[in-house]
Amino acid sequence: MEMDSKYLMIYNDIVGKIEKGKLGVNSKLPSENELMDIYGVSRDTVRKALNLLESNGYIQKIKGKGSFTLDINRIDFPVSGITSFKELAQRMGKEWKTYVQKIEVITADGYLAEQLKIEEGREVWEVVRVREIDKRKIILDKDYFIKEFIPSLTKEICQDSIYNYLENGLGLQISFAKKEITVQRATEEDKGLLDLKNYDMVVVVKSHTYLDDATLFQYTESRHRPDKFRFVDFARRQR
């Protein structure tokens, strides 16, 4: 058996063990020497398999300590599309729940006025929701809607889907969004509302969402536990 097929055999064998749960999250793989003995291959073949495992997100190699398995049960979060949390959760077929922490009309301060391109003092809906998937609270959504577009808003609507209400209840046409993704240190609010485990960072997606007439009506800060999401996109080279 040539080296190419040997390293793929090792790769596929370890991937199978990870995906079937035979190797749990943060499990340490055997050393390079042990893998050489287990599979009867050279060090170069073992390293090639480990490199492929690392590049595909199955393991993390830590210098001086060895190779450890990563959590592969991540949720694909579409960067390009405009998808409600309810739509995302239903598409995945996972158990989900939304907890409404706050729903109230506030007056826009300088920061919100800048984000929503309105004058300070304009009325804005502030909606803060915690999203739970598979009994783990992993998203904190902070939404701000210009009130003139949404005369009324209830806890029941916020627990279900605001986008469904806007499109099917109010007849608004949501068209496009501009998004910015950053990694930030977790705030005390994040730590209090989310199941962050030992993570002290969160992935923050800031979105400015527009109607079909190019009117900006929503600003969102969506704060995610970093190990639970894989942000995906489709890109085509423009010539």
From TrEMBL:
CDD domains: WHTH_GntR. The keyword Endoplasmic reticulum does not apply. Pfam families: GntR (PF00392), UTRA (PF07702). InterPro entries: Bact_HTH_transcr_reg (IPR050679), Chorismate_lyase_/UTRA_dom_sf (IPR028978), TreR (IPR012770), Tscrpt_reg_HTH_GntR (IPR000524), UTRA (IPR011663), WH-like_DNA-bd_sf (IPR036388), WH_DNA-bd_sf (IPR036390). GO terms for biological process: negative regulation of DNA-templated transcription. This is Trehalose operon repressor. Keywords: DNA-binding, Repressor, Transcription, Transcription regulation. GO terms for molecular function: DNA binding; DNA-binding transcription factor activity. The keyword DNA-binding applies. Residues 4-72 form the HTH gntR-type domain.
